[in-house]
Amino acid sequence: MKNASRFLTLVCLTMGAACLAPGLAAAEKAAAKRDATTAKSPAQSVAEEIGSLRNARVAIKMPAQKIELTYFAGSISAADQAELARLAPNVRIVTGLTRETALARAGEAHGIDGRFATPEFLARAPKLVWVQVMSAGVDRFVGIEPLVKNDAIVLTNFRGVHGPSIADHAMAMLLSLTRDLRFHAANQVKQHWGKGESPGQPVALDKSTMLVVGIGGIGTEIAQRAHGFGMRVIGTRRSTTPAPAFFERVGQSKDLLTMLPEADVVAIAVPLTAETEKLFNPAAFAAMKRGSYFINIARGKVVDTNALVAALKSGQLAGACLDVTDPEPLPAGHVLWSLPNVIITPHVAGESEVTDQRSSAMLRENIRRFGAGEPLLNVVDKVAGY
Length: 386
Fold this sequence. Notes:
By secondary structure, the chain is an alpha/beta fold. It folds into two domains: 45-161 and 355-372, Rossmann fold; 163-344, Rossmann fold (3-Layer(aba) Sandwich), CATH 3.40.50. Helix content is 40%, strand content 13%. The protein has helices at residues 2-15, 17-38, 42-50, 78-87, 99-104, 119-123, 145-149, 163-178, 181-190, 217-228, 256-259, 282-287, 305-314, 335-338, 353-372; strands spanning 69-72, 91-94, 111-113, 130-132, 154-156, 209-213, 232-237, 249-252, 265-268, 292-296, 317-322, 342-344. A seven-stranded parallel sheet has the order 8-7-6-9-10-11-12. Strands 2-1-3-4-5 form a five-stranded parallel sheet. The radius of gyration is 27 Å and the shape is elongated. The model is unreliable at 1-25 and 30-38 (pLDDT under 50).
């Protein structure tokens, strides 16, 4: 017996790792399984990259034996549903609901798509702990008293999701004005060359200054593109958080009027709150550099429309790029439609396949976190309004 043991030892010493191969293989398989379980999906990585943990909160604590939760989705693809069944098997996704059918079943919901969030729904939803808004702006939701006053309900938004698309749109509108592209597009329809007939002198963005009012996810994306065009970029923000390196200078909200005279282009990217409503009033437009351009992709009510019209008619502004207006939709016959130095789009700046991908990633990750009892991304301060 002793000789047999010595023989096996000698064989193992001679063969080296080969003797250990079965054990190593098992260990490697176990490690691979752990890695597969803990590895982040591309969607999760995207969501964590663009999502904010600033106000992160757990919507519902999850015991070791996970409880079943119900989430009312407005619309969700079959692919996302299949992925969520894997990522959050304890979250039942209910889709295909109208506002009426959702209201009738409100008592089932632990989490909902924001489009179902009404005072009537909240009154019938004792289990509700999470409302996911599918936009960056939450001005409509912070006006719902039962939602704001109920601290048990966590409100999250899509901050950061729409940034690339909106920033592209903002620069496209600006170039349409500075390069007289609308004039040339009209000539193309008429098959008319029209060289030298442009109504204005085309403007180059290089070495000009852009002021971004509100350096959040969208404002930062606009600033990055402006920097790429060779523009000097300055900005304002509520906090003292350091800005990306492509900003030459950043002031706080209180510095707006002193910074406006420096800018050749002013882009608004602030949320609509009590503090920002009619932020751009006669005094703000008067402080702007004469002949400057104005971009609003935030909310129409951030701007005093009458003051904007007056600034455009007087030449104080060379032009305005508006994806949002007040009122909205802009009614037929409104003076803004007829001003030659205005370009208007119907609140579509955020639409693109990239936005769809980022929206899907953010929703999936927050539902995964919801089911796991982890802090949600992009939690809104319901009192501050952002």
